[in-house]
Amino acid sequence: MPSFCPFSAFLFLSSASAYTSYIRRKAKRAMGITCSKNKKFQVVFILGGPGAGKGTQCEMLSEKLGWAHLSAGDLLRAERKSGSDLAEIINAKISAGQIVPSSITVTLLKNAMENIYSESGSNQTKFLIDGFPRSAENCSVWEEKMATSSNLEFVLFLDLSEDIMTGRLLERAKTSGRNDDNLEIIRKRFKTFRDESMPIVDMYEKKGLVKTIVADRSVEDVYEEVQALFKGI
Questions:
Q1: What is the dihedral of CA 205, 165, 50, 152, to 10 degrees?
Q2: 154 close to 229: Cβ distance less than 8 angstroms
Q3: Which of 28, 149, 197, 227 could be a cystine partner for 33, CB 3.0 to 4.6 Å?
Q4: Quick one: angle between helices 102-119 and 136-146, nearest 10?
Q5: Per-residue confidence in pLDDT tens, the chain, 233 aa
Q6: Which candidate, 72, 67, 82, places its Cα nearest to that of 104?
């Protein structure tokens, strides 16, 4: 009768355990599931009126510092063209003159963050979110859906007068092709920003999370001041 060897059994069990762990890790990677369950996304909200330079500064921060840039507006516009179930809801709301539910906007942001994180091999965890939140409902839904998976580092507010922003938007209209870059709609957008978004800036200001940059200078000068805020993050 063959003798039992405890050492051989130990080697077998160790090999089997290691192989099982390897298979599980491989399966998780295939499904886009991170092994770092406690990893949180680092988030900076970028706020400012229409034409304040949010997109431009985000592009520079993304290029030079490696933060991923997400625009809530761009995500909604892209989803509207996708033909998805969400697209139908979004288009129906807009056609009826209603605001797109915050749950949809936050879901699009969450999905985009998770996709970028997965595609980067779990390396991209820093996100600039441009033009969000724009209402108290945006804030509450973000907290509800993202509090456990993200950390709001700070809110960058680009402060600029409406006169300068109007000039920038009208100049952009010459080449942008955007139908909302006309004077009548620009004025409505300013009113919406004052009524809905400025209270959000004030709310975060009371929490000590707002960092304000006066954006009435050249793109490069504004960026020099903006990028200094990201040191150590």
A1: -30
A2: yes
A3: 28
A4: 40
A5: 445 454 444 433 444 444 344 334 444 444 444 434 556 999 999 999 989 999 999 999 999 999 999 999 899 989 998 988 889 898 888 777 677 899 999 999 999 999 999 999 999 999 999 989 988 999 999 999 999 999 999 999 999 999 999 999 998 888 876 766 778 888 888 898 899 889 999 999 999 999 999 999 999 999 999 999 999 99
A6: 72
Strand partners for 70: 129
Q: How far is CA 88 from CA 14, 71, 74, 101, in A?
A: 53, 20, 17, 13
Report domain extents, the chain. 42-228
What 8-state DSSP symbol labels residue 193? I
Provide the angle, in degrees to the nearest 10, between the axes of the packed helices 85-95 and 102-119: 140
How many whole angstroms from its chain centre is CA 113?
7
**Euclidean distance between the first and the last CA atom of the chain, given in angstroms as a whole number:** 65
At 177, list the tokens: 């092709």
Using the structure block, give the residue that is written with the tokens 């108290």.
136
By three-state DSSP, how is residue 39 classified?
A: coil
What six digits make up the tokens of 232? 């150590």
98 is written with which tokens?
Answer: 């209603």
Place of tokens 């300013």: 190
Question: Please, are residues 146 and 106 in contact by the beta-carbon 8 Å criterion?
Answer: yes
How far is CA 178 from each of CA 9, 83, 173, 221, rounded to the nearest angstrom? 70, 21, 7, 27
